[in-house]
Amino acid sequence: MKPTLNNIKLEIDRFIDSNKSFFNQIDFVIGVSRGGLIPAVLVSTKLNKPLIAVYINDKDEIFFDRSEWIENKKVLIVDDIVRSGKTMHLLQSYINEHSKPKTVLIYTPYAVTSMRDHNYEIIVSTTEVKDNVEFPWEYDK
User: Fold this and answer.
1) Domain boundaries, the chain
2) Integer Cα distance of 64 and 50 in angstroms
3) In CATH terms, is domain 5-129 a member of 3.40.50.2020?
4) Per-residue pLDDT tens for 86-126?
């Protein structure tokens, strides 16, 4: 599956518009670098909420600047896709432990059902696809 940037924007708009009162309660959007930054920018712009970036390297080390900003706030973590669920699980645990937000919610435009590892307990409400997704920004794959 190869969604276009426009398809992704439409998916984000549809999901946010159908849950507007819920999303209006969000204080900050956290974008997962690299792939999640583009959807996070679209989400934060549509919601008119501030955006913070977080990076997780290949050793599962998390680099999160401005963690004090989200203390006791409602935050929405945005990535481009949930494959196994590991990234979101790691990030949600880290943010809860180090930043003490009031609420942590997760949103991705896509989740791959065939790759999901149920050892990672996360709740994602998004478009489920059977196979992997290749995004326009994955130029090096």
Assistant:
1) 5-129
2) 15
3) yes
4) 888 899 899 989 999 898 888 888 888 777 777 776 555 56
